[in-house]
Every structure is written in C-alpha cells, then in structure tokens.
Amino acid sequence: MSKDNPVKKAAGKLAKEAYEHAPEPVKDKVKDTLKDKAKEKMVGGIQDKANEASEKLGKAKDENAEKVHDKAEDGEGKAQDALHKVQDKLGKVKEAGESFQEKMSGDEDGDKKKQLKGVKHIKSVTSIKSSTKHVKSSNDIKNYTDMSS
Questions:
Q1: Which residue range forms the structural domain that includes residue 18?
Q2: Secretion signal: which residues (predicted)?
Q3: In angstroms, what CA-CA distances link 87 with 29, 80, 93, 96?
Q4: What's the angle, vertex CA 128, arms to CA 122 and CA 130, rounded to 5?
C-alpha cells in the first residue's frame, strides 16, 4: 500500500483524533505500545540487513574459496610440469653420463688412449724434455754458404 491510499489516510486521522481525546493513562499506554512497535520494526529492519549482509559475505567467501582452489590447482599443474621437465633433463644427463662412463672404461677396440690414467702414469718433471736438449742453436743452423760446399 502506498501513502496516498485514502483508507490509510482516514485511519491515520481517526487514530490521531482518538489519541488527542483519550485520557492520560491511555495516551501513556499508546505511547509505550508505539515505542515497542517502532523498536520491533527497527530491530527487524536491522536484523534483515544483517542477514542480507551475512548472506552476501557467505557468497563472497564461497566464490573466493573456489577461486583460490582453482588457482591452487593451476599452480599444482604448473609445478608438476616443471618437475617432469627437470626429471626428463636429469634422465638425459644420467644417460649421457652412463654412456660416457662406458666409453671411458670400456676397452672394446683395444684403444688404450681412451682409458683414463691414474696419477702414477703422469710424467714427472724430470721425464719431460727440456727446451735446451735437442734444440739447435743459431750456430747449428746451416747457412746458405754452407750449403754450396
């Protein structure tokens, strides 16, 4: 019902006149009743708004939880992909290492150069040819005049 309703207006005027002509104890009783009704109406309105806000908060919470769950699944998938890539790369490195080890330790062709030598096979300083041995000096090099004779 809107405020322009003629029945409501007439009822409002009638109640106002009855209140003005009523004795004081009845007026006090009407005031108390109106205060209680106003409180109930106000509390009811506040309660409705609180319930509505609570529902909105619950919906927002559910939506955020769903978004977080989706993002967590995406992150988990990306992490799994990265781990699989690392696992593949490590597998390739392991295979390459095993292949290298087989090549280095195997003597299939009888090629001793491929085998790694131990510390005892490394030449000492005394067994390395020095630059003074078996190197000709400028006096030992033949000259063009020496060649003609």
A1: 11-69
A2: none
A3: 85, 10, 10, 14
A4: 160
